[in-house]
Amino acid sequence: MRKLFRVAKSGEILFFMGLMIVSLVLTFQTHRKTGNFNWRSEIWADRAGYYIYLPSFFMYHFDATKCPEKIDEKTGFGFTVDYRKNTINTKYSYGVAALLSPFFIGAYIVSPVLKVPGEAGFGVVYHKMVNVAAVVYLILGLWLLKQFLAYYFKPSLQYFILFFIYTGTNLLFYAIDDTLMSHVYSFFLFSLFLLSLKKFLDDSTSYRYFVAMSVSFAFIVLIRPTNALILLLFFLWDVHDLNEIKNRIMVFLRFRHLASFVIVLFCIFLPQMIYWKYSTGNYLAYSYGNESFLNWKHPKLLEVWFSTLNGLFLYTPLVILIIAGMILMIVKKVPNGLLTLLIFIFISYIFASWYNWYFGCSFGQRSFVEYYAIFAIPFGYFIESSVRIRNLLIRSLVLLLIFLFSYYNVRMMLKFDKCFFGSTWDWGQFSRQLERASIFSFYKKDYTFDNDLENQALSYSFSISDSVHHSGMYCAKILPDKEYTPVFSVPMKDLGEKLPRYINFDFWALNPGSLQNEALVVCSIDKGDTNLVWQSQPLAPIFTQKLKWQKITNRFVIPDGLKRDPVIKLYIWNPKKSVFFVDDLNVVLE
Questions:
Q1: Bridge partners (DSSP) listed for residue 464
Q2: Which neighbouring-strand residues pair with 557?
Q3: Nearest to 510 by CA among 543, 462, 481
Q4: Which of 222, 300, 416, 477 could disulfide-link to 352, CB 3.0 to 4.6 Å?
Q5: CA atoms within 13 Å, Cβ hemisphere of 178
Q6: For residues 523 and 555, what is the distance between their CA atoms, to the nearest angstrom?
Q7: How far apart are the first and last CA of the chain?
Q8: Do the beta carbons of residue 153 and residue 380 sit within 8 Å?
Q9: Contact at 8 Å (CB) between 471 and 489?
Q10: Is residue 166 packed enough to be buried (19+ CB in 10 Å), middle (13-18) or exposed (0-12)?
């Protein structure tokens, strides 16, 4: 492995040390006031699901009775503790935890030295440890990627590519903000895979490179099985004809290589299989329950690429230039151009087929993050082609565009609050995000809000149903156990200099039964616990047809003389505890 990790030069050390220092400052500043055990903290929900292996293995020995009380609830139910079966259950694999384990051990040693409560693996030091680990794997991933890029580009261009992959994509967000999500760790593994693959292809007699490639691939698949397609690069990367592909297949099928590949895969998956046996009773298990590729017949490609809800190009416009690089490579008949474009299309289809195509609370399309290691090649080719343009004006404009896209990414990221609180095509909410990021200020000051019930971040107060829907895949089911269901609220101080006069709203509702519905849509304006304004509209006169979606429309008036302290709220009051469905809410304050 010695030749895989070469000694860095002084300029290279300064570059990566600079990135590390900046990243550490950014991550500690980002998490300075987030605290613990809340939705903004490092170990929460999905992140806690990745993390729980560490305290379970090192502290609890997978004994549920040793877990802190209600620790699954305190960390957002990213995992569950089953005291009846005495199991700690998570749907996520142990891959991220394995990469984090040296840092966890370090936190275990440091926590008592600093006299900071460890809280059974969930104390302050453990939260901060995650931030350090993400930055370290970011820098290691970029460093390995630089060695891979050295096969294709001169040193100055390598630094240029790395710097703009760092500043221009949402890789940075997952290295300094969502530091326990899997993507920065997968980016490191992708970079390791690419470098070891390239070294092996250049010297197929060097067995250690094949082993390094196999280990990185095994962890890549363990963390996210859909990333298994990266193995195709072994057979297709840098190929020029079919004979080369056949030779690659024959090399891979050599007994020594194939046996090593299978043994490495088995050894890395064995702990996971043991965990599944402990958790489910079976050595092989699909831990994601009903979550699956429901949209494979009707993939949400337009949404994945362009939606205000985490659309790839909308949040990471630098990818446009990466696609341009792929097209240039194809036109110039440069190897890997068509391959990288096909990979982009294929993974877009895979992500667009997943039931939750926007992948929950994300900054942009987070599932593309690890693929930037591969896409660095067409991006580098685009930059290389740009600097060769003879026209100084065009060349300058192209380079300026790269800087602007990176500036856009950084500004948006710094002002992003974990989730996009808008619906699939909510341009009003997206424009407010642009304004908060000081990127663009819109003259239109009407406050708009849309909720198509597809974004789970907007649906915490609803019981979501997929049995019927007016549009999309889901709607809200109003149930008897909730007398009051909030659908919208906004502080009046957020409505600009001039307060609106009217609250216009519409939504679609469906009455499934024959019982009379006596629910009301209520608009209240409250200051603290004091109600200042109360207006309502009964639904009964509108629900004239059963089992048919009907549009509910109305306007409430905002009285004069109100100050900016109150909060405007819209909610459904269901005093008779009826059952009905609601979808596609639209609110306009004007």
A1: 476
A2: 502
A3: 543
A4: 300
A5: 26
A6: 10
A7: 65
A8: yes
A9: no
A10: buried
Same domain, 473 and 577: yes
Q: Closest Cα to residue 312, out of 294, 300, 325? A: 300
- Token couple for 294: 């429901």
What CATH number is attached to the domain comprising 560?
Answer: 2.60.120.260
Provide the pairing of β-strand 80-82 with 87-89. Answer: antiparallel
Residue-number span of the structural domain to which 495 is assigned: 445-589
Residue-level pLDDT at 577 = 83
d(CA 77, CA 460): 14
Same domain, 468 and 410: no
Neighbours of 262 (CB within 10 A): 11
Q: 526: which DSSP letter?
A: E
Which stretches does DSSP call E strand in 495-579? 502-510, 520-527, 530-538, 550-557, 567-573
The span from the CA of 341 to the CA of 253, in Å, is 27
**Cβ-Cβ contacts under 8 Å for 76 (sequence gap 6 or more):** 39, 44, 45, 48
Collect the ranges in the chain with pLDDT lower than 50: 1-2
pLDDT at 513: 74
Q: Return the ∠ at Cα 493 (arms to 491 and 499), rounded to 5°.
A: 100
Q: Are 468 and 437 part of one and the same domain?
A: no
- Report the candidate in 513, 508, 507 with the shortest Cα–Cα distance to residue 576: 513
Collapsed DSSP state (helix, strand, coil) of residue 118? coil
Q: Residue 515's pLDDT is what?
A: 61
Q: What is the pLDDT of residue 86?
A: 97
Residues 485, 412 within the same domain: no
Q: Specify the residue for token string 């590949």.
A: 261
Claim to verify: residue 433 and residue 451 sit in the same structural domain? no
Rounded CA separation 438/566 (Å) = 26
pTM of the predicted model as reported, rounded to 2 decimal places: 0.93
